[in-house]
Amino acid sequence: MQTRLKKAKFFRNPSLNTEKSESEGLSYITSEKMAQTNPLPVPLGPWKITVYDQENFQGKRMEFAASCANIMECGFDNIRSIKVECGAWIGYEHTSFCGQQFVLERGEYPRWDAWSGSNAYHIERLMSFRPICSANHKESKLVIFEKENFIGRQWEICDDYPSLQAMGWSNNEVGSMKIQCGSWVCYQYPGYRGYQYIMESDHHGGEYKHWREWGSHAQTFQIQSIRRIQQ
Asked: pTM value?
């Protein structure tokens, strides 16, 4: 714990996919078509995610290498399991990248509770998703501020913190933050629990002046744990 405290500084003030037959139960969509739904100009990168319309990687499946704003346009009614093979992604509760956010790092997610983690809100819908282009676990840095608009006490963070208060932050709220490099997932409660907010250095210019900019589901300044996103 002493080592981490030394790191904390307090101050004032796609490539194209190949079509397969429906009999194989496998559907693909080209990167060119997916790019049309991408909300931001994203360079081609090492991203790959496979989504399934049934739990435990059963049923219809589809591979993506870029954003999807509405999985229903691909013939799905919902996403019920996921495999992330390359890169880090954000999944959203609703279409058009709205609603609760879920960080999707490399690995397998056989059910909705695997990506919602210890979130107590039991959201079983995931309708849109996109890659996190700025994720860089080794070189990540953010500054949190006591009040909105980058006012008040500030704290530079370069590591994972399961409890901000245990490491010296004075309350359970963060007023604003600047993401200087990398991408982070911030949680409403200690121990990486509660609502997830994904903060990226290439969104909002890396500046989040108010909790309303954390996501369409954000309702409070409350953030009590933070970690870097694994690429």
From this structure: 0.78
How many whole angstroms separate alpha carbon 195 and alpha carbon 55?
Answer: 23
Q: Say if CB 222 and CB 193 are below 8 A apart.
A: no
Q: For 210, left (φ over 0), alpha (ψ -120 to 50), or beta?
A: beta
Tell me the C-alpha distance between 231 and 228, whole Å.
Answer: 9
Residue type, 80: R
Is the pLDDT confidence value at 40 over 70? no
Tokens 């790959």 found at: 48
User: What's the pLDDT score for residue 124?
Assistant: 85
User: What's the one-letter identity of residue 11?
Assistant: F
> What percentage of residues in the chain have a pLDDT greater than 90?
68
Beta strands in the chain (DSSP E): 9-11, 26-28, 48-54, 58-64, 81-86, 89-94, 98-104, 107-109, 128-131, 141-147, 151-157, 176-181, 183-189, 193-200, 207-208, 225-228
C-alpha dihedral sign at 127, 117, 82, 16:
positive
Backbone angle region of 149, left / alpha / beta, with phi > 0 → left and psi within -120 to 50 → alpha: left
Residues 169, 178, 180: CA angle, nearest 5 degrees: 110
- As a whole number of Å, the CA-based R_g of the chain is 18
